[in-house]
Fold this sequence. Notes:
Layout: E1 2-6, H1 7-17, E2 32-38, E3 41-47, E4 51-58, E5 60-63, E6 65-70, H2 71-78, E7 85-90, E8 95-98, E9 103-106, E10 108-109, E11 123-129, H3 130-138, E12 155-161, E13 164-170, E14 174-181, E15 186-187, E16 195-199, H4 200-212, E17 217-223, E18 228-233, E19 236-241, E20 260-265, H5 266-280, E21 286-291, E22 295-302, E23 306-313, E24 315-318, E25 321-326, H6 327-336, E26 341-346, E27 353-357, E28 360-367
Antiparallel strand pairs: 1-5, 1-7, 2-3, 2-6, 3-4, 4-19, 6-10, 7-8, 8-9, 11-15, 11-17, 12-13, 12-16, 13-14, 14-28, 17-18, 18-19, 20-24, 20-26, 21-22, 21-25, 22-23, 26-27, 27-28
Amino acid sequence: xxxxxxxxNLQKKILFVNHAISTRxxxxxxxxxxxxxxxxKLIISATDLEIGITIDVPAKTEKTxxxxxxxxxxxxxxxxxxxxxxxxxxxxxxxxxxxxxxEVVFQTAPVEEFPKLYEDKGKQILVLKKSVLIEDLSKVVxxxxxxxxxxxxxxxxIKEDGDGYLLVATDGYRLSLKKDALKNAKKTQPQNETAMxxxxxVIRELIQMEKEAEEEEVRVYASKEKNQIIFSQGDTVLVGRxxxxxxPKYEKIIPTDFSTKTIFExxxxxxxxxxxxxxxxxxxxxxxxxxxxxKLLVSANAPFVGKNLVEIExxxxxxxxxxxxxxxxxLDFLSNSTSExxxxxxxxxxxxxxxxxxxxxxxxxxxxxxxxxxxx
Length: 376
């Protein structure tokens, strides 16, 4: 293998590929990048068997070939390489990198040990718009559990919903739901599967991939036989395994009515919760909302530390009420919402509270309350 390319191009690309490197693995080969030199490009791949990422970097290829090298070593070393043209060549010593002022030799491992990311992409089922994908998926993915030990709760459910899709994620304590999502998606293949449960980690990497991509469209491939979902955009491919678990019957926990509804500015509540969190983090993150006719009182109380109360303007209909939530859950929702104005509905301090965006009736976020013994 022998190629030459621009160092800045390689450095930028491998930072994203590095997201697929395992931090907990019994297989040393999964700590490596697979580097393949093909005509006109250098292909960098990584996988932890849960997700896989591959990126093409433009290169002048003199000799094709493939090798694997330590991802950590390559990433750290590329951060020190001066800008300009570099060459990569396999030698008897390893992978030889030569820059304008540097010469580096990386130890290598055989490519035969590196697992294949995919045999083929499968059938293309969708073409999605970058901006819509980022906005819609960002509103739900944060509610999924990061714990892969609970697979059914660690993914985002995506299923057909009329002309669009329904997106749902929950960790058992909160739930985000977006109807009529991914509008203007081009369905390029009849879908036999009415629903897919995609790992939240894959969705998060997809959102990051979209933010950095120049192209406006991403192509989605699915293989039922391989149980894989593949997102392809420009020179980047993201591979994930679909979750084989039954998603919870989320419809059962969504309230159908309410006794209290209040409307307020999202930024006002966000600032109030941040202030309360200074004390709330000392007491399991408890933030209390007291809903009055024309205001919302946000408070936190930490014995031996202090307490605070912030009053924000609100328009309330129905009963005055009180409820307590985990501050982190509130901040997660408020930071991922894009609406200036939020409505909140509840039926009592022990029932789920429902947040909605006033400018998007297709979205809702539910949070389970915290039972509190004393008033804060």
